Amino acid sequence: MAMLEVKNLNVYYGVIHALHDVSFEVEEGEVVALIGANGAGKTTTLHTVTGLLQAKSGSVVFEGKDITKKPGHEIVRMGIGHVPEGRRVFANLTVEENLRMGAYTRPRGEVADSLKEVYSWFPRLEERKRQPAGTLSGGEQQMLAMGRAMMAKPRILLMDEPSMGLSPLFVGEIFKIIEKVSSAGTTVLLVEQNAKKALSIADRAYVLETGRIGKFGKASDLLNDDAIKKAYLGE
């Protein structure tokens, strides 16, 4: 049984049919990429998995439990972390206050150790722990959003466009951190506009095309697929 199984999801925004029978799965320990053009339904898919949107039909099963109708806060408690598109840090709170917000589901006695762990991943956040989050650079805010999600000790981390708007230097840093997170045992579902980067670190990938799964397979195979190269890799 896969860690995360998404089966025949249909999601609507009013009368607009955003996802059409979307199905995919993520095995424990994998990095799975979800790639596609703007408006293909990638963010909608993540929001449905994490309870921010309700599916019209279909199911989301996590570690054998149906979570399709569960509210977001319960889904976090079950072990699903979400790094949203656009970072969404609490601008007026300090870096450390933002991180502590991510640990609201955890026993109080475990928070200090989690902070140490996150600071070991992101030394720059420790340097700026008393700084308001809104004063950080875009790359630092992305690190903070990732660190905040990791404070909940997720079994699987859903990441939405982590490289968006970042300089090439920060993009490289963020992807190295994703690989470290994966190597440390956290499963990753990665939505990413930078398809080449995503496919270079993923085990498998699915291509979303206007709300439907088009292609899927090993990431290395898709990286060398001529149609994928032309549509998403600029080759």
Question: How is this structure best described in words?
Answer:
- With 235 residues, this protein is α/β, with parallel strands linked by helices.
- It is built from ten helices and ten strands.
- Strand 7 (156-160), helix 7 (168-183) and strand 8 form a beta-alpha-beta unit.
List the helices and strands and how they pair.
Layout: E1 4-13, E2 16-26, E3 31-35, H1 42-49, E4 57-62, E5 65-66, H2 72-78, E6 80-83, H3 95-102, H4 111-121, H5 123-127, H6 138-150, E7 156-160, H7 168-183, E8 187-191, H8 195-201, E9 204-209, E10 212-218, H9 219-223, H10 226-232
Parallel strand pairs: 3-8, 3-9, 6-7, 7-8
Antiparallel strand pairs: 1-2, 1-4, 4-5, 9-10
Q: Kindly state the mean pLDDT as a whole number?
A: 91
Number of helices: 10
Distance between the termini: 37 Å
Low-confidence stretches: none
- Overall structural class, as computed from helix and strand content, comes to alpha/beta
Shape by Cα distribution: globular
Largest sheet: 6 strands, mixed
β-strand amount: 25-35%
Strand order of the largest sheet: 6-7-8-3-9-10
Radius of gyration: 17 Å
Helix content: 25-40%
- Quaternary structure classification: single chain
The count of β-strands is 10
Order of helices and strands: EEEHEEHEHHHHEHEHEEHH
Short description, anyone?
The protein has helices at 42-49, 72-78, 95-102, 111-121, 123-127, 138-150, 168-183, 195-201, 219-223, 226-232, and strands at 4-13, 16-26, 31-35, 57-62, 65-66, 80-83, 156-160, 187-191, 204-209, 212-218.
Characteristics:
single chain, 235 residues, alpha/beta, six-stranded mixed sheet, four-stranded antiparallel sheet, 10 strands, 37% helix, globular
